Amino acid sequence: MEKFIYYGIIFDIYQSLLNNSSIEIFKLYYEENLTLQEIADNLSVSKSYIGKVIKDTEKKLDEFESNLQIYENKKALENLLEINELEKLKRAIKKIINN
User: Fold this and answer.
1) Are 25 and 56 in contact (CB under 8 A)?
2) What is the CATH code for 1-68?
3) What is the mean pLDDT of residues 70-81?
4) Contact at 8 Å (CB) between 65 and 51?
5) What is the pLDDT of residue 26?
6) Contact (CB, 8 A) for 70 and 13
7) Cα-Cα-Cα-Cα dihedral of 38, 32, 30, 48, to 10°?
8) Per-domain residue ranges of the chain
9) How far apart are CA 93 and CA 48, in angstroms?
10) Which helix (H) or strand (E) holds 76?
């Protein structure tokens, strides 16, 4: 389940960088919770093709996040909201900026 949450979040961030076919299949799998076979039947393609598209899309999303780190920076910034001391907050923000 954690995998579904993670990919759901980074998909929302990076989906505009994907092609329409990958977006459609990824949404059917991750958002509509259809099985590989159900997606394959609906799109009249093989189950292995759907599996490959999903794996390739996951890999692309991982590469986007590895390079751009939008999700990680967002999480770090959300954690900063818990800091009440101004100097500690400034140091933490500088650390994020310098990464």
Assistant:
1) no
2) 1.10.10.10
3) 88
4) no
5) 97
6) yes
7) 10
8) 1-68, 69-99
9) 45
10) helix 70-80
